[in-house]
């Protein structure tokens, strides 16, 4: 049975699927809709994503899609490790602008559920890291947004990575929270 743990912010969850190890290796149900529904997570995922980052310090984020293409994301790591970061960007939320981080890794075999209304990003902690995630809405370039990972108004405590961060141009030039299109 999958274990579901509430983190500190909104409905952000850590999900720990069972791993059955034996002399051959292991087997794991990495997603079981019925078990998650019993645990209170009733979502319909419509797209699976997979990203590979060659180096430690690859920082992707902070990303979200605006309604009507907002996405819940169920994120896991099959190789390597990330520090995963979520930021509450719902203006009406008592925790608006607050962030939370969780290490997600192949070793921990954990997942993070990022609800709609949260910006999401991660930095790879080791080279050759593969991140797989399910989303509840299709990609829409027009609704896709990035928020500055180092906005002091948010103040995410990103880890220090020797060699620094590797970012996309889109993420390097992303707007600050004060100038971004957010959720109501
Ligand atoms: C996100 C996405 C990108 N793309 C394309 C657009 C672009 O040409 C290429 C790379 O896109 P990006 O630079 O946005 O990829 P990336 O920076 O890895 O974006 C991802 O970051 C993490 C943190 C998330 O939370 C994801 O939702 C997503 O935003 O892939 C799709 O075709 N479908 C998708 O769903």
TrEMBL record:
Belongs to the dTDP-4-dehydrorhamnose 3,5-epimerase family. The record marks 139 as: Participates in a stacking interaction with the thymidine ring of dTDP-4-oxo-6-deoxyglucose. One of its GO terms (biological process) is dTDP-rhamnose biosynthetic process. Its EC number is 5.1.3.13. It comes from Mesorhizobium australicum. Homodimer. InterPro entries: RmlC-like (IPR000888), RmlC-like_jellyroll (IPR014710), RmlC_Cupin_sf (IPR011051). One of its GO terms (molecular function) is dTDP-4-dehydrorhamnose 3,5-epimerase activity. It catalyses: dTDP-4-dehydro-6-deoxy-alpha-D-glucose = dTDP-4-dehydro-beta-L-rhamnose. The lineage of its organism: Bacteria, Pseudomonadati, Pseudomonadota, Alphaproteobacteria, Hyphomicrobiales. This is dTDP-4-dehydrorhamnose 3,5-epimerase. Keywords: Isomerase. The active site is at residues 63, 133. It holds the Pfam family dTDP_sugar_isom.
């Amino acid at each position: 049975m999958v274990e579901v743990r509430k983190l500190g912010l909104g409905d952000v969850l850590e999900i720990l699927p069972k791993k059955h190890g034996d002399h051959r290796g292991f087997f794991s149900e990495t997603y079981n809709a019925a078990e998650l529904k019993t645990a209170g997570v009733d979502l319909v995922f419509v797209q699976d994503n997979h990203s590979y980052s060659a180096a430690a310090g690859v920082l992707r984020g902070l990303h979200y899609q605006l309604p009507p293409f907002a996405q819940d994301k169920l994120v896991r790591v099959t190789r390597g490790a990330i520090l995963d970061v979520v930021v509450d960007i719902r203006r009406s939320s008592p925790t608006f602008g607050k962030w939370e981080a969780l290490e997600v890794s192949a070793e921990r075999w954990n997942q993070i559920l990022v609800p709609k209304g949260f910006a999401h990003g991660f930095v790879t902690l080791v080279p050759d890291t593969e991140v797989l995630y399910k989303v509840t809405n299709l990609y829409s370039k027009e609704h896709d947004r990035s928020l500055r990972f180092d906005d002091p108004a948010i103040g995410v405590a990103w880890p220090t990575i020797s060699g620094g961060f590797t970012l996309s141009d889109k993420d390097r030039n992303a707007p600050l929270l004060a100038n971004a299109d957010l959720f109501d």
